[in-house]
Each structure stands twice: as structure tokens, then as C-alpha cells.
Specification:
This protein has 187 residues and is α/β, with parallel strands linked by helices. It is 27% helix and 21% strand. It has a six-stranded mixed sheet with strand order 4-3-2-1-5-6. Helix 4 crosses helix 5. The chain is globular.
Length: 187
């Protein structure tokens, strides 16, 4: 049994990573296996757009530590479970903020979720470019509303909650991981 990671970061007003949420999922079933939520000190103390949801009752913080300690923890955790692939929504953002993790294979969930070719839930009335990509409403929240048919869904913007939501998008799209090769982030 192999695992892949779905990762999300939140940044502060200075564009520094203030939290990292990761869900490990089974490569075949795409079911979540383990989660990890790390808050970065002192970056989280500087405040950010989503500072109010850093510490919420529904999410257990695994560790509050320095950025370097967080990276070491993540690398150890990935090694323990043999993780080689990281998936993220708008992966270029997370990839650029975590240069120490760029040795892994990175894939962008957005690349499949926002394109008619890969997302059968996108209907003809939805405005798309000639490429088949949605012109608007392709963020996590509107895509998950579309896929789940739940217009009441709201993105939390807590890194662990968002990583779980991004995994849900992958589950709804139900593509084998190989299909995500088209969304690989080039180093």
C-alpha cells in the first residue's frame, strides 16, 4: 500500500508560511490515512488573512515550531510512509513557498478540477475558454460546491481543513493518480 500527500499552506501578511496542513491518502482508494497540522512560530504571530482559523476546535495542532523544524518533521513523516507525490490546489503557490520539498513530485489538483476534459461536472452553461478551462469560479470553494452539489459549503481556510477538502475534490473527480501527470509542476 502506498500513500500520497495532499498539502495546503496558509501565509501571513508578509507572505511567510504560517501553517501547513497535510493529509496522507491511500494511492488506490484515495481515502485519508493520517493528517498533520503544523503552525509556524513566529510567522503565525505576525497575523494574516486567515489567522482567525489557525486554532479551531475541530483541528488538533500537531506541532507549533520553527519553519525549519516543520520541514524536518514533514520530511521524516514522508520518509516513514514512503511519500513521493504531493498534490495541492493551485500547487505552484505551495511549491514556491516550500522550496525544501521541491524534490518531491508535485501535482496541481486545479489543473484537472477547472477543465472540462477532466471534470465532467462542468456543464455547457458554464463559461469556459477554448482550452476548456473555466473562466471563473474555479477555486476550491466553488469547485467543491459544484462537485458535492452543496451550495452551502464554505472553505474554512485552515490549512488542514483545506487539504482535506482538496482530497475530497480528487475523490469526486475519481481519476487515477496517473491522470494527474498532465498537472505536474516542472522544476
Amino acid at each position: 500500500m502506498g500513500y500520497f500527500a495532499v498539502l495546503d499552506t496558509e501565509t501571513n501578511w508578509k507572505n511567510e508560511v504560517m501553517s501547513i496542513g497535510i493529509v496522507l491518502a491511500d494511492e488506490i482508494t484515495m481515502e485519508p490515512f493520517r493528517g498533520k497540522y503544523i503552525v509556524i512560530d513566529p510567522a503565525y504571530k505576525k497575523g494574516g488573512l486567515f489567522s482567525s482559523v489557525l486554532f479551531i476546535d475541530s483541528v488538533r495542532v500537531n506541532r507549533i515550531c520553527s519553519y525549519q523544524q516543520a520541514i524536518e518533521d514533514i520530511l521524516d513523516w514522508f520518509a516513514l510512509y514512503g511519500v513521493k507525490k504531493i498534490f495541492a490546489y493551485n500547487a505552484g503557490f505551495d511549491f514556491s513557498h516550500l522550496p525544501q520539498l521541491q524534490e518531491f513530485e508535485w501535482y496541481d489538483i486545479l489543473r484537472l478540477a477547472a477543465y472540462k476534459e477532466y471534470n465532467s461536472f462542468i456543464h455547457e452553461q458554464m463559461p469556459c475558454f477554448k482550452t476548456g478551462r473555466l473562466k471563473r469560479n474555479y477555486g476550491v470553494e466553488p469547485i467543491l460546491q459544484l462537485l458535492s452539489k452543496n451550495e452551502d459549503y464554505r472553505e474554512v481556510h485552515n490549512a488542514l481543513c483545506d487539504a482535506l477538502d482538496e482530497l475530497k475534490i480528487m475523490q469526486y473527480l475519481s481519476h487515477p493518480l496517473e491522470v494527474y501527470k498532465v498537472s505536474a509542476i516542472k522544476r
